[in-house]
Amino acid sequence: MAAHLKKRVYEEFTKVVQQQQEEIATKKLRLTKPSKSAALHIDLCKATSPADALQYLLQFARKPVEAESVEGVVRILLEHYYKENDPSVRLKIASLLGLLSKTAGFSPDCIMDDAINILQNEKSHQVLAQLLDTLLAIGTKLPDNQAIQMRLVDVACKHLTDTSHGVRNKCLQLLGNLGSLEKSVTKDAEGLAVRDVQKIIGDYFSDQDPRVRTAAIKAMLQLHERGLKLYQTIYTQACKLLSDDYEQVRSAAVQLIWVVSQLYPESIVPIPSSNEEIRLVDDAFGKICHMVSDSSWVVRVQASKLLGSMEQVSSHFLEQTLDKKLMSDLRRKRTAHERAKELYTSGEFSSGRKWGDDAPKEEVDTGAVNLIESGACGAFVHGLEDEMYEVRIAAVEALCMLAQSSPSFAEKCLDFLVDMFNDEIEEVRLQSIHTMRKISNNITLREDQLDTVLAVLEDSSRDIREALHELLCCTNVSTKEGIHLALVELLKNLTKYPTDKDSIWKCLKFLGSRHPTLVLPLVPELLSTHPFFDTAEPDMDDPAYIAVLVLIFNAAKTCPTMPALFSDHTFRHYAYLRDSLSHLVPALRLPGRKLVSSALSPNIMPHEDPSHQFLQQSLERVYSLQHLDPQGTQELLEFTIRDLQRLGELQSELAGVADFSATYLRCQLLLIKIMEETYKMEFMYSGVENKQVVIIHHMRLQAKALQLIVTARTARGVDPLFGMCEKFLQEVDFFQRCFIADLPHLQDSFVDKLLDLMPRLMTSKPAEVVKILHTMLRQSTFLHLPLPEQIHKASATIIEPAGESDNPLRFTSGLVVALDVDATLEHVQDPQSTVKVQVSYPDGQAQMIHPKPADFRNPGPGRHRLITQVYLSHTAWTEPCQVEVRLLLAYNSSSRIPKSPWIEGGEMSSQVETSIEGTIPFSKSVKVYIMPKPARR
Amino acid sequence: MPEIRVTPLGAGQDVGRSCILVSIAGKNVMLDCGMHMGFSDDRRFPDFSYITRSGRLTDFLDCVIISHFHLDHCGALPYFSEMVGYDGPIYMTQPTQAICPILLEDYRKIAVDKKGEANFFTSQMIKDCMKKVVAVHLHQTVQVDDELEIKAYYAGHVLGAAMFQIKVGSESVVYTGDYNMTPDRHLGAAWIDKCRPNLLITESTYATTIRDSKRCRERDFLKKVHETVERGGKLWARWPGGAARGSSRAGLPPPLQVLIPVFALGRAQELCILLETFWERMDLKAPIYFSTGLTEKANHYYKLFIPWTNQKIRKTFVQRNMFEFKHIKAFDRAFADSPGPMVVFATPGMLHAGQSLQIFRKWAGNEKNMVIMPGYCVQGTVGHKILSGQRKLEMEGRQVLEVKMQVEYMSFSAHADAKGIMQLVGQAEPENVLLVHGEAKKMEFLKQKIEQEFRVSCYMPANGETVTLPTSPSIPVGISLGLLKREMAQGLLPDAKKPRLLHGTLIMKDSNFRLVSSEQALKELGLAEHQLRFTCRVHLHDTRKEQETAVRVYSHLKSVLKDHCVQHLPDGSVTVESILIQAAAHSEDPGTKVLLVSWTYQDEELGSYLTSLLKKGLPQAS
């Protein structure tokens, strides 16, 4: 054996020499850097003890290795490996080999032979496992090489019988990652016996070590992930694993069962101990449901989560999950939910509960009661009552997903969701409210359910209340009493928490517009009108009164008979509110009054819309212009911009498009101000596509050219011009590289011409460059700006501080005062990193504050809510003064650029992405009166 | 035949007076030592004479285990240890150890001071008894002696309730005490690992009930309390139209009070937590009072044993201990007359005496008040009467009390229901199940279900009845590494769970067993190896010479036994592995050849196969 080893070592050594000879060709490259491999070699030779060698290796591993020197390093490591007696050093070398083979740009197939060779002679289990890991790294690096994969799978199969669980684990992992997908390709190719990977892995489902069993299941899942179709026979094997002693095995088995059930949902499986057969997906569903009452919470979470994605389950099974089949003293009992429903339908709801009300009714046949194997029975009831909130959340999520796909189930699970509103953990409550909102299209709340929902309005947590308002916005209520109840509770909420004003108004707006017919009979009562007597005019500033009016006016929008019930002051109040709270109060067709705005029925398609046509026409008119110079052009532009802006004001649907186009035109008009404006366009709108980004960048380039010209005209001396010229040319180059794909669209544009002349520009003097640019700018045409599908302008409104207070905020100078800032943000992408708060003091000093990511809440798609505290501080003032608070949108132009492969790799540092290039103010500033007092001694 | 014997002294087909004797592998353990609520004579305590007949308790019992602090599980403990006389260890969890004496003292006071019983245990006896207690932690394996070990598992039910695993060698019994499989507001759910005991002794209070989701109950409870406390608020007063409406019920809000009589320690805490968190969430201001005394003392310990509570309390106690109630204050008698809404928890739970009855009499007249009964009421008590709808009650002194207040019933119970019991059985995977702490009729149903669904035998002995279970304890045998490795080398297949045959010598020495290879056994015992050879003669009809016969035999065996090493030796004999075959001419009949087959004992299998093969004769030479 020793002789054999020696021979092997010798062989390897000669190989190294050959390798070095080959490397001579690449000498030129290697000369530029100090050879890492050489240094390592010297270090390793110096090492006297294994500990020393280990230290050197650890040190070596800290620094990255360039792709071209990887091979050399690998050779040296291998050479050392053969000589090394200490397993820990060999282990480290093996792991280094794995790391190195992952290096980008290095093809590891050349070290595979060596790796397999050393694997065969290795004795230590740990090193073996590590080597297999290395092979895995190599194998995954070469996904296309069938032969290598086959070989690796062979090696893995050979070591599967190892006594160490670590080695078996790695082998299974290797099989899972590399096991061949298509049998036919390899069958005759290499003469290697085709191995049925699934069969081999399946054999290890019954390994004695739970870690190996887990690894086997994971490997199977990995196969599935790679697109290999698992056999249906695996299902029975996996079912056995569900009763394993170890939680990680059970957890993985649940996943596997889920996978199989998704693959073969319609297959038929027999029910053990009976002659019946059911669909596989139903059977799997029952089994996973059973795992919801497993003894380990990890498994319970896993099972609850997976239940949500089993949509093909028959509704019969699905509904069982909510039914626990109550009994008391062997007599069947109805659940509280059923009783509530019955009370409600029999019309005697709200009668007090009596002793014996829940008395069990009919006798249960003792033989028919099944306490365990009832499959799906009550799975969700258990899940929602679980001890761990993780399980409860998972169960709520699963309920949500299932309810979204099945309306009848949604109806059934309502009671349970409503019950979750009383959970002890806020996260769970919040989650269930959100879930309810998501499925609210499918359901109508009964009055008793609504009652429970509304009870939560008194919750002291703001998040909960707001989530509930959101929920009420999209809830269907069945009766007028329901609406009344909701209104009463919302008003109660308003008195208790006045800060909820906006959210409650908004909620009532939707509540009104969804249920006009239910609001109608309530109107006289709500407005407290009397058939004979005039009643006192309510206070117009009372938020509660406004709330009621918002409800009524929104209901009146689709209910023309309603305004007849209004009294005079109601009309007056309408006019006032329509002006002051136009976003909450819709335009109404009131008798004897002009329409406040043209009633555009919203069902007209946007393309047929005349205003849309108008928009198109005005834009086309502008695009037909050829050059910037003529006076008429500028006028036309100005008019068009004005038109567009007005259009945006009138038509809220088109506001985004109109505003966007107007801004573009303004850019054309004001090329000098372009820098700012382009940045605005790029970062303040969500939904901007690549096409637009190109044009915006193009615009910026033009502006830069223009800037260059202006500087050239005004600046003295040539030196600064040199730098600017070079920078400009760099930017042109950058533009070309970034948007190479879009260049064909930019025919005849500035950049197109610029790139044509690029070689000339490179060699020209600055003065000449300026000249060329000048003419080119004049000749360049407008670029047609394609309108994006969906475009929204980012905007922000500061709700708090309101800026109305006359009482200055007093604090001792040098100390800080916390100012609560509450703002809503619309259509801001990634607000956590982009939105900043700016505080400007009267002395011109300005501070930029970065709010914490946790201060942003996301109440709905495209909307964010910033609730944060800003710390103010200043030296002492003699009298109070105002500071301005506003929100800024920070941007960084390089973050938008589509990633090309060549910048993606390497260290395209994340720092570039987060750094701020500039900011755009996007909210109105609010003035806050402050007064730093001098400190008293 | 080793066996496990179980004899319930109490709680056999009955609720109360839990006391179960278990004999396992020669060790005697007593599980729980409770009193019976229904009796006030000798029957209230278990019949310890069953044991004392044969001698002193201490000599008979190896240890006593108390599952939790309810009196029907620990009430007889001072009587048992001090008056009957037991000096051995008593095991219980730390919360039980802390709270148990409070309850015992309370029990003593009622029995001696109120009912005037003589010959009852004294306070000193309780103290002395508690000195014998050894506290155990959850999942801690306690060695009672060299062989007996016990281990506690979390049981929910009340603070400190535990299930115990009693183990001697490979035999084990699990006793659940009372447990709850659904978590509540202050405790988690019972949990046990797959310990596969020989016997699981489980309570079966709710053997025939499957309970509704606890969330409905909680929600109902909170809604009732909230509505009552909040009623009469001036909701519409914000604008004139509403004000008119509000003024119709103008005037001071009437006193709106909620009385919640509570009994069981543990339920009170759950309801308190429920109300406290609700008050906090809803920002309510109405005061909640808590009757002083027993529950208050116990509450002190609830604050200390946070690790025994549920996830929510454990996670938030760093910010705030949930048992340090903000809204719940101690009750004073004078508060009952003060105006304004309030919620009062008072004892006892069945409204038959004490504080709760006093308050009830004060408040019963107002139809806006409410009483919520959170538990079961015994027939004859005021609680039972009002629950069954009686509106006029006759009090002492011929007074008639008209009950106008609303009466509500809510069931808060902390026992596992039928599904929960089945779930626990499924988790522990026992070989046998034994039901205690339940009614015989209900047990019957559960027994049938357990036998049907788990296919394990289930028992339900009455008090004093003994159940004997034969066990087959496994005996561990040490194997020498050399032998193991040699056997392993013969091929390792993944199905290592299957039994495998291996050859070795079992050495029994000083009550330990070792399996070693035969060579080593010989060496250890100082014996010389004897060879045992079997020899067999096979008659073959063959006229040819011996050598030729041998060659024929050789070629025949070679063709049949492909896997074995068949050799033809120069001396004319044939060997297959170590089996020797010699051919000789028959002394009388030259036409018959005698084949002498000889093999060692180790090769018995191959040798007998070979003989049978040769007996069939050789194939005709072609």
From TrEMBL, chain A:
This protein's name: Integrator complex subunit 4
SUPFAM superfamilies named among the record's database cross-references: ARM repeat
InterPro entries: ARM-like, ARM-type_fold, INTS4_8HBD, INTS4_C
Organism taxonomic ancestry: Eukaryota, Metazoa, Chordata, Craniata, Vertebrata
The keyword Nucleus belongs to this UniProt entry's keyword annotation: yes
UniProt similarity note: Belongs to the Integrator subunit 4 family.
GO CC, alphabetical: cytoplasm; integrator complex
Gene3D superfamilies: Leucine-rich Repeat Variant
Domain annotation Integrator complex subunit 4/Protein SIEL C-terminal Ig-like: ranges: 797-934
Major localisation: cytoplasm
Domain INTS4 8 helical bundle: 673-788
Key words of the record: Acetylation, Cytoplasm, Isopeptide bond, Nucleus, Repeat, Ubl conjugation
Native source organism of the sequence: Phocoena sinus (Vaquita)
GO annotation terms (biological process): snRNA processing
Keyword Transmembrane helix: no
Gene of this entry: INTS4
Location of this chain's protein in the cell: Cytoplasm; Nucleus
Subunit structure of this chain's protein: Component of the Integrator complex, composed of core subunits INTS1, INTS2, INTS3, INTS4, INTS5, INTS6, INTS7, INTS8, INTS9/RC74, INTS10, INTS11/CPSF3L, INTS12, INTS13, INTS14 and INTS15. The core complex associates with protein phosphatase 2A subunits PPP2CA and PPP2R1A, to form the Integrator-PP2A (INTAC) complex. INTS4 is part of the RNA endonuclease subcomplex, composed of INTS4, INTS9, INTS11 and inositol hexakisphosphate (InsP6). Interacts with BRAT1; interaction is required for the assembly of the RNA endonuclease subcomplex.
Automatic annotation (TrEMBL), chain B:
UniProt-listed Gene3D superfamilies: 3.40.50.10890, Ribonuclease Z/Hydroxyacylglutathione hydrolase-like (3.60.15.10)
Compartments, as annotated in UniProt: Cytoplasm; Nucleus
A Gene Ontology biological process term: transcription elongation by RNA polymerase II
Gene Ontology CC terms: cytosol; INTAC complex; integrator complex; nucleoplasm
First-listed, main subcellular location of the protein, grouped into a coarse class: cytoplasm
Cofactor(s), by name: Zn(2+)
Keyword check for Metal-binding: yes
Keywords, ordered alphabetically: Cytoplasm, Hydrolase, Metal-binding, Nucleus, Zinc
Domain Metallo-beta-lactamase: 16-233
Metal-binding as UniProt keyword: yes
SUPFAM superfamilies: Metallo-hydrolase/oxidoreductase
MF terms (GO), sorted A to Z: hydrolase activity; metal ion binding; RNA endonuclease activity
Domain annotation Beta-Casp: ranges: 268-386
Domain of life from the UniProt record: Eukaryota
Similarity comment text for this entry: Belongs to the metallo-beta-lactamase superfamily. RNA-metabolizing metallo-beta-lactamase-like family. INTS11 subfamily.
PANTHER family to which the protein is assigned, alphabetical: CLEAVAGE AND POLYADENYLATION SPECIFICITY FACTOR FAMILY MEMBER, INTEGRATOR COMPLEX SUBUNIT 11
Assembly description: Component of the Integrator complex, composed of core subunits INTS1, INTS2, INTS3, INTS4, INTS5, INTS6, INTS7, INTS8, INTS9/RC74, INTS10, INTS11/CPSF3L, INTS12, INTS13, INTS14 and INTS15. The core complex associates with protein phosphatase 2A subunits PPP2CA and PPP2R1A, to form the Integrator-PP2A (INTAC) complex. INTS11 is part of the RNA endonuclease subcomplex, composed of INTS4, INTS9, INTS11 and inositol hexakisphosphate (InsP6). Interacts with WDR73; interaction is required for the assembly of the RNA endonuclease subcomplex in the cytoplasm.
Protein name per its UniProtKB record: Integrator complex subunit 11
Species assigned in the record: Phocoena sinus
